Amino acid sequence: MHAVVLWNQVSLQDSAADLDVLVQCVEIETGLRNLGFTVDRIPCTLNLEETRTRLIQAKPDVVFNLVEALGGTDQLTSLAILLLESLHLKFTGAGCIDNMLAAVKTTIKPRLLELQLPTPAWISSAVPKWQGLGASGRFPTRVIVKSTSEHASFALQDDCIFTIPGGSDGTAILLQRLQQQSQRHNSLFFAEEFIDGREFHVGVLSEAGVPLVLPPSEIQFLDFPDEKPKIFGANAKWECESREYGATDRTFEFPLSDQTLLETLTSTARDCWLKCGFRGYGRIDFRVDASGQPWIVDINLNPRLTPGSCFGAALAELGVSFDEALRRIVDEALR
Q1: How far apart are the first and last CA of the chain?
Q2: Do both 291 and 206 map to the same domain?
Q3: 96: in domain
Q4: Final residue of a domain: which of 69, 91, 113?
Q5: Each residue of 24-52: pLDDT tens digit?
Q6: Residue 187: pLDDT above 90?
Q7: Closest listed residue to residue 248, CA positions, set 234, 240, 236
Q8: Would 57 be classed as within a structural domain?
């Protein structure tokens, strides 16, 4: 059988987060060849007509979709999926509608509320009023400012944790802060109540339409000073020379006292996947507050799944090899 690895073309001047797709291409191509596939690699750019022509000429049995951005933004990734759907090609990962829903955080959060899934309250300059406050109606006093549609902890630094000034002007000052971030990074930002607690990542892999929930992992913040926000930001993910990179770690080892929490994380991830009707593979990120309540803070469809990633590590923890994971993902696409 013949597979095409479709990837977003990058240059050596791009960030480490963008260049990571090249590492993924090599590892996935190797894995697919180990499974007996012949493999072509086709770059995807905003010249979709050229990409369309190359896909038609390649005549793949399946396309492994690694397009993470187009035109320098994550907002346009759905164009590649829409192209694959228009050609009636079988491809891995999320469909266009699911990707469009999950890719924009301020779009998926109202959906989570409708489905009675826990997500922190939020506000944006597009909708300048608090949403998801819950029965108490209590306004948050500490927030995290995040990009609405860029991923991989885009522009997420310590100063994105913001304490809202007291008084009637607090929300107005916060909205001004969001506008400043949006102008600085040419991307819309929103503010979400900051859950000052533990961070967990839970991978999900569809098998014959049924979600297999992978073992939850926790991001450990090692030797962080008390005043330093415990966030898995851009430095911790991509800047290998930074203090944050060396002071964060991933663990799958938990005391017995965490058993109920782990079961709740697993069941909530499964409920989220089923209720949203997702397909393919993904990762659901949680923050857990001091009372032990998990909150969904991000949903990543088609996440990085190579062995060094969070998803890849969870597969290994479950005893699933990288090649076996690729086989399951491709089988789901062919199904």
Answers
A1: 15
A2: yes
A3: no
A4: 91
A5: 999 999 999 999 999 999 999 999 999 99
A6: no
A7: 236
A8: yes
